[in-house]
Amino acid sequence: MRLAWAFFKRDAMVEMSYRTSFTVQVLGIFLFLAVFYYIGKTFAGQSIPALDKYGGSYLAFLLIGVALTDCVGVSLTTFAKQIREGQLTGALEATLMSPVSLPVILVYSSLWAYFFSAIRFVMYLALGVTFYKVSVGEANVPSAVAIFLLTVLCFAGIGMMWAGVVMIIKRGERIISLGGSVVVLVSGVLFPVSVLPGWVRVLGELVPLTHALDGMRLALLQGYGFQDLGMVFLKLTVFAAVLLPAGMGLFNAAVRIAKRTGSLVEY
Question: Of the candidates 90, 130, 231, 254, which lies 20 to 30 Å from 238 by C-alpha distance?
Fold first, then answer.
């Protein structure tokens, strides 16, 4: 725990030292909320049957979708970003010689990113409630927290896989951008999955975010508890149990390949 805290404290101090960047991130939330508000206002008063199960408010639906997707973005990029920085600075080889395994270092180095992602999630909700009257009065907080944590675990596994790919191919920003766009499309971030063609909905079932968003919206907007969301928790748990070990395994395999081919110092 001391090592984890040391990494967390280091990254927090570094982030806070760049005050302009930190402030811009916070202001960006206000800007996004303004955009969401007017999008929601466009659909205000219209009956959208696909939103009935979530309370009928498109603004609330959209707000939760974007807030949780922010966390997913952290998982997909933070590990690969650390690998890429290590390659560019020449620190990756030295890190591999550390007595602490590289996967553990990556996880510890991502703690601040995940913590700040959780803070942004709460800020999205708080500002939505304060300024745009998004109703979360019936929210089941324990269920929402559990879904958030399971979402982190699911996509941390995918993030580890992607970090392994970056270890080998060095560059891949466009690939992850394309993959992220597909995830946003099929998982119901911006609109209900029920409006998508049948084959796209089938594809969406294979994406953890689809189930996480459904459960998070029901927990926060309709007050669904653990019993009501049993199937959602089961699916996310299965995803996490498969993806996390698979991600670590693929990443470790990539490290072995890079060592064998001598490509660790290449960038």
Answer: 254
In a domain, 91, yes or no: yes
Spell out the SS3 assignment of the chain.
CHHHHHHHHHHHHHHHHCHHHHHHHHHHHHHHHHHHHHHHHHHCCCCCHHHHHHCCCHHHHHHHHHHHHHHHHHHHHHHHHHHHHHHHHCCHHHHHCCCCCHHHHHHHHCHHHHHHHHHHHHHHHHHHHHHHCCCCCCCCHHHHHHHHHHHHHHHHHHHHHHHHHHHHHCCCHHHHHHHHHHHHHHHCCCCCHHHCCHHHHHHHCCCHHHHHHHHHHHHHHCCCCCCCCHHHHHHHHHHHHHHHHHHHHHHHHHHHHHHHHCCCCCC
Average pLDDT, rounded, for the chain? 80
Q: What percent of the chain has pLDDT over 70?
A: 83
- Confidence category of residue 229, pLDDT binned at 50, 70, 90: very high
In a domain, 266, yes or no: no
Range of the domain at 103: 2-261
What's the structural domain count of the chain?
A: 1
- 267 in any annotated domain: no
Confidence of residue 108 (pLDDT cuts 50, 70, 90): confident
pLDDT of residue 232: 94
